[in-house]
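re the bet — no i am not wrong, look at it urself. input seq straight from the record:
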Amino acid sequence: MTSLYYQNLVESTEARRQALLSHPIYGAVVHLESLRIFMEHHVIAVWDFMTLLKSLQLRLTCMNLPWIPVRDANAARIINEIVLIEESDEISPGIYRSHFETYLLAMGEAGASTTGINSVLTDGIEAANVPNACKQFVQTTFAAVEGPTHITAAAFLMGREDLIPQMFKRMTGQLPPNGHVNFKLYLDRHIEVDGGDHGPNARRLLESLCGNDPAKWNDARTVSLAALEARIHLWDAVMASITKHSRFRSGAKY
């Protein structure tokens, strides 16, 4: 049963959520060059999603030796199940791969550059040669991770798990019928798992962590709004980059 606190959280963030879901970026990824630009920005968000998830796993499960029982087995189960899919999804029978690796394969299919994300992996986000909007997005994520667990969980739910299915549904119809197999797989898989179990489970986790504490729910609202604003700013930057390209202005598609 959804708590009144959670309903208030949803209502108080709905305006920014709708601003994000109505962003023009979803209708702008209509040709190969715009897809490449989108991917080269968005891969940073795909990567830093794991920072949120693994931070929650570190806090809610036992990752130390010697092992000791966790305080909340339900919370541990929720996070471990999400990690299982995100870090080692079964792409086909007996074939396992992280969603991040699937995204890199999709970038290869589209001819998008992986130089920026590779520099993030080797040199860190601050030193990496990626757009400033990507760095600012990651800074918002890292700020949520540095807070108490309920703050991290709020950013995880409201900025990712509850939001991603609706964002990605807006993109799937723009892709050509043939090709881009791994990008379609990435989008479809997140629509399926986040819209299925992961989103509702992340909501139950947040409700458990915040309980009936008004201060914690206020924290959740603050970090949720920050996560939504960070995504809007990232989409603004992607849109600005796309609109500079002559093919987009001329309306040429895939």
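see?? The longest strand covers residues 89-92. told u. also The radius of gyration is 18 Å. so pay up
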